[in-house]
Amino acid sequence: MTKTISRRKPKGKIIISILIVAFISTFLVSVSLGKYDVSLKELLHVLTYKVVNLPQDWSNQIEAVVFQIRLPRVFAAMLVGAGLSAAGATFQGVFRNPIVSANILGVSAGAGFGAALGILLTFSYMWISFSAFIFGAAAVLISYLISRRVKHNPTLGMVLAGIIIGGLFVSATSYIKLVADPNGVLPAITYWLMGSLASIRIQDVLYAAGPILSGLVVLFIFRWKINVITMGEDEARTMGVNTTLLRLLLVAGATLITAACVSISGMIGWVGLVIPHCARMIIGHDYRKMLPASMLMGAIFLMIVDDIARLMSTSEVPLGILVSFIGAPFFLYLIISRRYQS
Amino acid sequence: MNIQIKNLSFAYNEDAVLENVSFSATSGEFLCMLGRNGVGKSTLFRCILGLLKGYSGEILLDGRNVKDMNSREMARSIAYIPQTHTPSFNYSVLCITMMGMTACMGKCASPNIQQEKAARNALKELGILHLADRGYAEISGGERQLVLIARALVQKSKVLIFDEPTANLDYGNQIRVMRHIRALARQGYLVILSTHNPEHARDYGNRVLVLKDGRIFMIGHPEKVLNVETIEHIYGVELDARQQLSYAHC
Questions:
Q1: Structural domain includes residue A12
Q2: Phi, psi for A9 (deg, rounded to 5)
Q3: Average pLDDT, chain B
């Protein structure tokens, strides 16, 4: 018996350690990769020089590329990947349904509408983000209020309300595109909805990092209780969990993350669905390990896909499209593969 | 530990489900609740567990009204063992067992080494320690029921409420699970259990409560309550000669 214990326990830790190493390497490689060559050595020098004083042996161009272009973009991919994955995993737990993701509450659709509206009204970038956030949160709030009126099955009520509200926001976005000026605003909206990190600036990243990181902290703190809440309302409550409060906190945290992600990256699907499933396959279903693994894997995945988006061709393929092209076949493979059963 | 239920009534909309239910029970009792489907057993359990609040009457635990207790205090007093089910996620048996300790942890905490050890001890007590690292979805129904019992034991509450624990089990597992539950009552737990099998009440219980139309129809020692006449009356069937014989000595 003790043998199985000692064999199993470090397994989770080893996987997490491997993921952390992979995460750091992906980060460094992603920053050095690009059309302007930055060697790993130069990169490490540029990065450490901010902390300790080093004799400058790199060009100013490299410094500009690293700090103005690469770092914001890689940080954004990292935050959005980790955020969407953790939010997806949390929604799956709270709604006790492994096929749920951020789209289910209409968060993405609401945020997409908010951004489209902002672009239509020629808001500044910051206000477009803010509008995305407001409408994303509004979508959840409306879904939540509707679900409270569905007495017998609040979870089903919330999912259905989310789908309905999401559909409504998608139609509203289509209407905005219909009335938008086809010479300037319409392409901007369309491109933004495809999901991209191409035009990201450091202030956008800093602006979104606050809500994303604070949401991640909330989810991380309550990761054990997510396990308990997946056992169902009655059981969780008889085990001493205040399900109403916990569900509110988790949904609010995951929504905050999703809206903040959508506001800087546009609509990127699949990550919130596929990454938690991969995490479950390699580390098991326990949220204590699955949630951190999802965050790391999501960050790694989106940094890599964004590298491909940047490097594949001279005119960039939007990240959202690329994620779908990779995510959909991969998810299909997952559900027909035998490992999915366990 | 002592539980007292005084004039409990509950209605969904206008329909009365429970009417003036009063009884009390103390540690060491193994109270089996019988009654047809829809007679109010689940509603009664949900009221006792604090899941339904809109009832009239009082539920007292050692003289303290459960309405004055928060969910963590409730969890440390009463544990609920549901029917076995397949959860949405395939947690390990150990993980499911440790969930019972949530009310004893800090509000933001995860289980620590001591708590993991306690969970393993509970699994050992029920003879299923070898399953600790297996997935809950991969074990048999009888084993799952034992895991849920282990989860209730680590909750450290002295009242155990079982909702038809043998409902989905084969004959051997029914006996195994009922014996474990009886052993718990003998250790001093207060067990309240609903069942559709009067033989379980007769063979394992030391007190029987019969609910009919939301009221207590009979309550007392199994040998007094469980006679042919009562059983025919509860379930609305006539027993044949052989079935009658099995309750004749009661």
A1: no
A2: -60, -50
A3: 92
pLDDT recorded at residue A74:
95
What integer pLDDT is reported at residue A341 of this predicted model?
A: 52
Whether residues B88 and A288 touch (CB distance < 8 A) is answered with: no
- Cα(B108)–Cα(B10) distance, integer angstroms: 35
* In a domain? residue A140: yes
Residue B74 in contact with partner chain A when CB distance is under 8 A = yes
Residue scoring higher pLDDT (A36 or B72): B72
Partner A contacted by B50 (CB < 8 A): yes
**Number of CB pairs < 8 Å for A and B?**
88
Q: Which CATH number does the domain housing residue A102 bear?
A: 1.10.3470.10
Are residues B49 and A288, on separate chains, in Cβ contact within 8 Å?
Answer: no
**How many structural domains does chain A have?**
1
pLDDT in tens, A246-275: 998 998 899 889 888 988 888 888 899 889
Whether A267 is in a domain gets the answer: yes
Given an 8 Å threshold on Cβ–Cβ distance, is A342 in contact with B95?
Answer: no
Task: Report ipTM (2 d.p.).
Answer: 0.91
CA distance B100 to A338: 32
Q: Shortest Cα distance from A12 to chain B (angstroms)? A: 13
Which CATH fold topology does B2-222 show? Rossmann fold (3.40.50)
Please indicate if any CB of chain B lies within 8 Å of the CB of A93: yes
CA distances to A85, A230, B10, B115, B150 from B143, rounded to whole Å, are 33, 20, 35, 21, 10
Mind telling me how many Å the CA of B108 is from chain A's nearest CA?
6
Q: Which of B110, B123, B124 is the best residue to mutate to test the A interface, defined by the most A CB atoms within 10 Å of its own CB?
A: B110
Q: Is A3 inside a domain boundary?
A: no
| pTM listed for this prediction | 0.89
Domain that holds residue A140: 17-341
Contact A148, A156 (CB under 8 A): no
At residue A314, φ and ψ (nearest 5 deg) are -70, -40
